[in-house]
Amino acid sequence: MGDWWQRNIMEPGKLPLLLALGAFVLTFVITRVVTRLIRAGKGPFGNVETGGVHIHHVVPGVVLTVVGGFGAVAGGRHGFGSALAAVVFGVGAGLVLDEFALILHLDDVYWTEAGRKSVEAVVLTAALVGLVLAGFTPFGVDGLSQDEMQDRVNVVATVAANFLFSLLSLAKGKARLAVFGVIVPVIALVGAVRLARPGSPWARRFYARRPRARARARLRAYRHDRRWTGPRRTLQDWIGGRPDPH
Question: What is the C-alpha to C-alpha distance for residues 72 and 87, in angstroms, rounded to an integer?
């Protein structure tokens, strides 16, 4: 375990990423705690307003993300400046993605059903960065040997194949598998070979004249949603708070 930590997490250049991820997750947790207290009318916290305008925390989040991003570019990958820029960027990203749904809908949907997208975006981002910290790199290039890395043809072929798997997963309506498949290609391969979800671009194009395939796709999607929608919503409620009832 110690060797793995030193090899992957404490590898030179990865400390800023670790600091950014820690700041990102901690900022999201603190922000959700504060917003839930404000919603419940408890504690000393309250909404920030100026001139009658509610200032959402995505605003300082954007500022901190910009400052941290440019600071990281200017400061390189080592030293105190790089570490500080990483923390600032992580805090800003946590504030921004906590209101991802607001940006997506251009409306204050924080405590609505649509607001669950913010929690999904945060969990997805943290998981992907965690995989990168654990030693995975996009499109499986980390799985190549030293000799293969020197052979550009093999590298290009590997990246192209894994990118195709992710693209097929996305076309089949399996966005989560497609995104995770960018880091762990075998996940995208699973999404690429399985039936497409009803209504996906792949299903509209290739299942239009195949009623049996359409029926199988609908049945599989129904079984999958019935099995996983409840636990996923429970987890989202636990992390981000239960949306307001309609």
Answer: 10
68 touches 86 (CB < 8 A): yes
pTM exceeds 0.90: no
Cβ(65)–Cβ(33) under 8 Å? no
Q: Are 26 and 93 in contact (CB under 8 A)?
A: no
pLDDT (tens digit per residue) in 118-128: 999 999 999 98
Q: Which residues contact 42 (CB under 8 A, 6 or more apart)?
A: none
> Which amino acid belongs to residue 143?
G
Q: If you write DSSP's letter for every residue of 10-49 in order, what string do you get?
A: SSTT-HHHHHHHHHHHHHHHHHHHHHHHHHHT-SS----E
Q: Are the CB atoms for 105 and 229 separated by under 8 Å? A: no
Residue entry with tokens 């992390």? 239
8: DSSP letter: I
| pLDDT tens digits, 75-128 | 766 778 888 999 999 999 999 999 999 999 989 899 999 999 999 999 999 998
Q: How far apart are CA 64 and CA 119, in angstroms?
A: 20
Cross-strand partners of 49: 54
Q: How far apart are CA 76 and CA 92, in angstroms?
A: 19
Q: How many residues does the chain have?
A: 246
- 226-234, long-range: CB < 8 A, 24+ apart: 233/116
Show the beta-strand stretches assigned E in the chain. 49-50, 53-54
Is 198 within 8 Å of 214 (Cβ atoms)? yes
**Which H helix or E strand runs over 152?**
helix 152-171
